[in-house]
Amino acid sequence: MLSLWAFHWKYGKAISTIIVPSRKTGVLGLNHWSREIDNVRTKARKPFVPAERHETIRQEIIESIRGQTLSAKEISVRVRIAEKEVFEHLEHIRMSMGRGEHELVVTPARCRKCGFVFRKRERLSKPGKCPICRTETIEEPLFSIT
């Protein structure tokens, strides 16, 4: 076994390389991260295949909240997307519903401790703290379509 030190131009620092006898090539180099240099064996990854959808995500959200009141977390579970994405889609749904016969109804968030209701809040996401009692125990806003 032989140990070599070299300056690596990409990382801008010295790295150590250990030379170990190998069956195939005769020599196998290992750097200090213990990765093979000569014989790299990587597992082939399967390509990412998105879930098959027959409707758009916004159509699925509209269908899931039509006639019932749900929070963003419940919508994200039903539609199988991240909760942060739900708020972006709900903003677009709110704009498009404003022109038609249906309307997105938002039941505002409420503080569990003092009962403060966030009526003037423009954003659809849950606020961080209550402005009155400064607690973080806030009920999520609820969404429905009428």
Description:
With 146 residues, the protein is an alpha+beta fold. It folds into two domains: 30 residues, no CATH class; 89 residues, no CATH class. The strands form three sheets. The protein has a three-stranded antiparallel sheet with strand order 1-2-3, with no helix packed on it. A three-stranded antiparallel sheet has the order 4-8-5. The protein has a two-stranded antiparallel ribbon with strand order 6-7. α2 packs across α3. The chain is globular. The chain starts with a strand and ends with a strand. The relative contact order is 0.12.
Write the layout of secondary structure elements.
Blueprint: E1 2-8, E2 13-21, E3 27-31, H1 57-65, E4 70-71, H2 72-79, H3 83-97, E5 104-107, E6 110-111, E7 138-139, E8 142-145
Antiparallel strand pairs: 1-2, 2-3, 4-8, 5-8, 6-7
Helix pairs in contact: 1-3, 2-3
Helix content range of the residues, please? 10-25%
Mean pLDDT: 79
- Report the order of strands and helices: EEEHEHHEEEE
How do the strands of the widest beta sheet line up side by side? 1-2-3
Q: Sheet with the most strands?
A: 3 strands, antiparallel
Counting DSSP H or I runs of 4 or more residues, the number of helices is 3
Oligomeric composition of the shown chains: single chain
Structural class by SSE content: alpha+beta
Give the low-pLDDT segments: 31-39
Work out the strand percent.
Answer: 15-25%
- How many structural units, i.e. domains? 2
User: Any idea what the radius of gyration is?
Assistant: 28 Å
How far apart are the first and last residues' alpha carbons, in Å? Answer: 75 Å
Global shape: globular
- Total number of beta strands: 8
